[in-house]
Amino acid sequence: MDHSKPDALFLADAAGLDFLNSVATPASTPIDWIDSGDGLLSWLEQARLVPAETLAALKAQALPGELDSVAGQARDLREWFRKFVREHKGRSLAAADLRHLERLNRLLERDEKFQQLVKVDGTAQGFELRTMRRWRSTDSLLFPIAEALATFISDEDFSYVKACEGAQCTLLFADHTRGHARRWCSMALCGNRAKVAAHRQRQKMQQ
Fold first, then answer.
1. Helix 66-88 vs helix 142-155: angle between axes, to the nearest 10 degrees?
2. How far apart (Å, rounded) are the C-alpha atoms in residues 31 and 26?
3. Domains in the chain: how many in total?
4. Does a structural domain hold residue 5?
5. What CATH number is attached to the domain comprising 103?
6. Which helix (H) or strand (E) holds 172?
7. Does 160 reside within a domain?
8. Structure pTM?
9. Contact 86, 94 (CB under 8 A)
10. How far, in Å, CA of 41 to CA of 52, rounded?
């Protein structure tokens, strides 16, 4: 894991949006958790999208600069998908919107997933059918990201996809609260900042 940065933010309540939030300004300085190959590996581990042993194996076999190139592809995918989300958030998706997702479908077509029976202790049958993935190259690191984006599109109502109301915040989230009243990426971050700002403004008005 990359210890040169703080832990990545997972506040969106949707893995697809957490990927978009892999670049953010949690304090005063912007942070891109996928700014390099090592950053991509660290973020994927923190997001639990790829097993740690798979990440280690792919890093060991990668050619110089290869992982940095894949990280560049991930950033490009991220900004393409950010544009789609920002243009469509606040309303339910329509069938016509599928034409804008061809790039994602092309990436999903390349994935190599399969199912396999594995031995599992503590179950009545002793076996479990698991979905596995062949990790043939470093490019395959993009597949679980693509799956997270596709799952987000298929499972979420875009009517409740929101941008944090924090003045400087760029984070997006899926509002799963009752009444869909969520306004902030996190009360610990932007919510408290807004409270402090409002309190100061009231004090100024009373002076």
1. 10
2. 8
3. 1
4. no
5. 1.10.3300.10
6. strand 172-174
7. yes
8. 0.88
9. no
10. 9
Model confidence pLDDT, tens digit, residues 37-53: 999 999 999 999 999 99
User: Which pLDDT does position 2 carry in this prediction?
Assistant: 54
For residue 10, being part of any structural domain is answered with no
Q: CA-CA distance, 165 to 185, in Å (whole number)?
A: 8
Instruction: Indicate the helix (H) or strand (E) that contains 202.
Output: helix 192-206
Residue type at 49 in one-letter notation: L
Q: Give dist(CA 179, CA 177) in Å, integer.
A: 6
Alpha carbons 70 and 137: distance in angstroms, whole number: 10
pLDDT at position 194 is 53
Pairwise CA distance, residues 78 & 121, whole Å: 39
Closest of 12, 143, 132 to residue 73, by C-alpha: 143
Note whether residue 168 is domain-resident. Answer: yes
Neighbours of 93 (CB within 10 A): 18
- Asked if residue 172 lies in contact with residue 85, where contact means CB atoms within 8 angstroms, the answer is yes
Q: Which range of residues forms the domain containing residue 67?
A: 15-206
